[in-house]
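Long-time lurker. I teach an intro course on protein structure, and each term I like to show students one example going from raw sequence to a predicted 3D structure in token notation. This year I'd like something fresh instead of my usual example. Would anyone be willing to generate the tokens for the chain below so I can use it in lecture? Attribution to the forum is fine with me.
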Amino acid sequence: LVCKASGENKLIPVCFVGFGITKLYNILFSNFWLLFIASFIPSKVANEEAAKLIYSNVMIVSVVLGLLVVPLAGRLADKYNPQVILPLSFFIRFCSIVMFMFIDNPNTYYAFGVSVFVVVGTAMENVTVDCLLLRNADKQIRGVILGFGTACGFIGMLIFAIVGGILFDRIGPYAPFIFVGGLDAVFFVISSLLACCNVIKNDLKIKEE
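-- Reply from a regular --
Happy to contribute to a lecture. Here you go:
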């Protein structure tokens, strides 16, 4: 069923890949963000308690902003052409990761703002991919499609938990974030090319016809 649906609508397998990338956030911020902050002990951050405080403040503000951004992202995904909104959502998080590379002290307003931006960008990715996948799946197999997409997300998280740990240990604390930003950039380019070639179609226009 999944293979048949993917063959009939190329947006579905693209969303599966998007699932695998956007769900990396769960590992990135639950593990590597706190480790990133802790890597600045004692030069820029006093101790582990201070690192945990910075982390918790970022997450609190991110959740509050997410309450505002997620409905807006859902509205944009419903209203606008997926040929535009899908690449755009990944480009936004890519930009936030680029900004993240300039953090030299996690205990600054810049670091705080960028970290929140990464979380908000991820929320936009997540809602966009979810919305487009459900909108393009037939009602009879919508649960199967969503389940397979979720499985892709878990596979991505499993791989990233291993790869990210290796990158963090061997290259440095920025490496896992660079890896995710690189995947966002690749997905942005590929999805843009597929949209330009009309492989990813404007499903809103198809439904109107």
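Some talking points for your students: The chain has a mean pLDDT of 83. The longest helix spans residues 48-79.
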